[in-house]
Structure formats: C-alpha cells, structure tokens
Amino acid sequence: MLLIHCPYCDEQRAEIEFAYAGEAHIARPPDPSALSDEDWSRYLFIRSNPRGRHHERWRHIHGCGRFFNAVRDTVTDTFEATYKAGEPRR
Amino acid sequence: MADALLRTDPVSGRAFAGDGVKISLAPPMARYSLRARQPEVLERLLGLKLSRQIGATLNGAACLGPDEWLLRAPAGTSLTTAAGLPVAITEVSERSVCLIVEGVRAAEVLAAVCPLDLDRYALGRATRTVFETVEIVLLRTGEERFEVEVWRSFAPWLNTSLQTAAGQLR
Fold first, then answer.
1. Taking the CA of residue B101 as centre, how many other CA atoms within 13 Å lie in the half-sphere pointing to its CB?
2. CATH number 1.20.1300.10 is the correct assignment for the domain at A18-26+41-90
3. A interface mutation test: which of B33, B118, B129 has the most A CBs within 10 A?
C-alpha cells in the first residue's frame, strides 16, 4: 500500500483515498485570446512527462477534499515531498 | 408520530451480534454540513467553538477539512440559516445513516477493508475515508466503539460487508 502525506491533514494516508490530477504549476495564460491556436493547444495538451522527478497535483478526495502538490519520482514511485497548493515549486 | 410511522431505513433496525462485535443502526439524528473559510463567522453564528484541527471533534462537530465541519446533533435540532454571511449551513440529516460497530473486535473488523491505522486512531477522531470503494466518515466514539457514517444508498452493501468481515475473520 502506497502512503501519501497529505499536507492539510498532516498525516500519511493510503493512496486509495487520493486522486491524481495531472502535472502541477501549469498557469493559465492571463490573456487567452491573445494566444495563437498552436500556443493554446500547447497549454492545454502538452505536458513535460519526465522520467524521474515530476511535479504533480493530487487531491485528497476521500479525506479533507483538498488539492495539493507533490514531487514524485516516476521511476521509483517515491514521493519526495508534498506541499499545499499555492506554495512555491520545490 | 407520523414521522416515525413513515420512516423507512435502508438497513434493518435489528442489531447484528457476531463474535466480539456488534453492528447496529444508530437512531435518526440531525446532521449539518458546515462550510466557511473564516470559522470565526460560523462560530459567532452558532455560538459554539469549532476545532481547527482536521480530524478532531469539538462540540459534536467533526472537522473534516480546512473549511468543512460535520455537525451531528439530536434529531429535530434545527440551525439558523446563514443568509448574507460568507458561510454555508446545509442540512444533510437524511443523506447518510450511521452504523455503530462496537465490541473488542470492532477495530479488527473495520481494518479488514479500511486503510486507516486504527491502532493510532485516537478517541474522538473523525475523518472521511473509504471502506473498500465506499466513502464513509469514521468516528471513534469509544475505545471499542466506532461510528460509520455512510450515504443511505450504500448502507445495505456496507452493512453486509461489515457482517461478512465480522463473520469470516477469526
């Protein structure tokens, strides 16, 4: 059973309580109408998909209900850190 | 009286007594979902202190998230509405039913499918979690007594699942 630390509950909880929510720190362009179709599709669909350290969003859906960010190694599945949404990238 | 006659519960009112564990349906109660980014506003409105620590229970209100509380009160309790204030008070009394799991083997039966570490689950704790695939709110109300809040439509399945766990674990 994979345990994930929820920064809001401040506790290690089972993975089954969480939902994955894609790559983190992707800011919506401030003025979407100024973007070309190509840039907009890049914002919508293109992700970094690294091998190794990955910043991603998770949601403690069957718990406190909050979104938070995590740094996970995509090779070993080890969680390096989890931190609250809105905090700077680690 | 009319209320009592019309009421149908999703689970039989007859308790299940297994080896070292008893599973029964709690009598109806009032439940309120309280949401507020500023808990002080809610506290002033209701006139009771709310816990800021997720998982803790204070004055019958369990803190489920940073801005969410589940208040459980005797049946018939009604709360003020919060018109004009930045809080949400929603009555959810009939959204869920409460199954009481008690006895020396209560934690063991719940641990069959619940991923929480129940050995370190202190008295008074309450949290949302999952039981197999069903979302529940688990409250520890005694050393050997747990209360499981589950949505009505899931209750028959959960009740059967708990009874199965109670019957098969030895």
1. 25
2. no
3. B129
